[in-house]
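Hey L., structure's done. Input below.
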Amino acid sequence: MKLLALIGLPALLLPLGLSTPSTTATASAPAAGAFEVDPGHSSVVFRVKHAGAAWFYGTFNQVSGSFTMNGDDPTQSEVSIEIASASIDSNSADRDGHLQSPDFFNAAEFPAITFKSTSIAKSDAGLEITGDLKMVGKTVEVTASAVHVGDGEFRGKRSGWETTLEIKRSDFGMNYGLEQGVLGDDVRVIISLEGVQR
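Output:
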């Protein structure tokens, strides 16, 4: 599917027709240290084309993980994300049930979508994060564009990042509706993470 999730990986996840990262990113250097993802203030959004006519958007409502930012050398940073497959939300209970079935995410057998970085490089906008995206039992290497959104203080030091990636769902064996043109293959995933410093 083209996440994270990840139909889907804020797209993480991860990448759906890679777009320019959010223009709200700050120019300041991101806070260094280890951060735990705050699930209540983090989001995973995906889009996929329906019937060749329009983009359809949905979310995953449960994301967790951690990231470590190396202030001296951002390329030595690390990211690890987990998304609950069964938390997919398409604004239709019946459709959500189908998306959780073996036709798509097979959430009963594969309850988690995971991403773990393997390398990080600097880019003009922020960082390019390459890593292993694992979904429905298959692992595919993907690259996500990440921008630093900001840092703040609220019940601890916080740092925010937004990543965008594009994936092909067929890479994960998720072929339902492709031949008939009901659903597109390319999925864009936007993952917005707010981390609390550990």
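The mean pLDDT is 88. DSSP finds one helix and eleven strands in the chain.

-- N.
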